[in-house]
């Protein structure tokens, strides 16, 4: 394959379209969450991921799992956790079975904020997808996103 190979060009165009769609959606949601709830997309995502933890076996996520879920490095995730902890939205505690492990839970205030922010997130997502669907280069990707289901945890 060469740099001018049509398959590479198509692949590059597909990646560009996907990246453009993601950027537009994220920017639209970011503006809505910031304006209404003083939350960034990453903060909202972190609260959402951590709110889904449970007390059962494997119910609490390690920091690496949280970082993977919110698509950040572990150090960036730790800084994000600290910011939300400083705002009273998260709290950390030692793992009861392994004193080296530290878990992070959403506080009652964090759960309340997430509850009121979720409709904003969902509405902004729908708006961004509807707007992107008007672009012929992005419309096929929008249709794919609309048909996706969340992966079932292994």
* Overall SS class: mainly alpha
**Strands ordered across the widest β-sheet:** 1-2
**If you average the pLDDT, what whole number results?**
90
In one word, what is the shape?
A: globular
How do the SSEs run, as a string of H and E?
HHHHEEHH
Largest sheet geometry? 2 strands, antiparallel
- C-alpha termini separation: 37 Å
Radius of gyration: 19 Å
Uncertain segments: none
How does this model look, in words?
- The protein has 154 residues and is mostly helical.
- Helices cover 64% and strands 6% of the residues.
- It has six helices and two strands.
- It has helices at residues 6-37, 41-51, 63-70, 74-86, 108-132, 139-147, and strands at 90-94, 102-106.
- It has a two-stranded antiparallel sheet.
- A hairpin with a 7-residue loop joins strand 1 and strand 2 (102-106).
- Helix 1 (6-37) packs across helix 5 (108-132), helix 2 crosses helix 5 (108-132) and helix 3 crosses helix 4.
- It is globular.
- The model has no long low-confidence stretch (mean pLDDT 90).
Write the layout of secondary structure elements.
Blueprint: H1 6-37, H2 41-51, H3 63-70, H4 74-86, E1 90-94, E2 102-106, H5 108-132, H6 139-147
Antiparallel strand pairs: 1-2
What's the short story on this structure?
The chain is mostly helical. The chain is 64% helix and 6% strand. It is globular.
Keywords:
mainly alpha, single chain, 6 helices, 154 residues, globular, two-stranded antiparallel ribbon
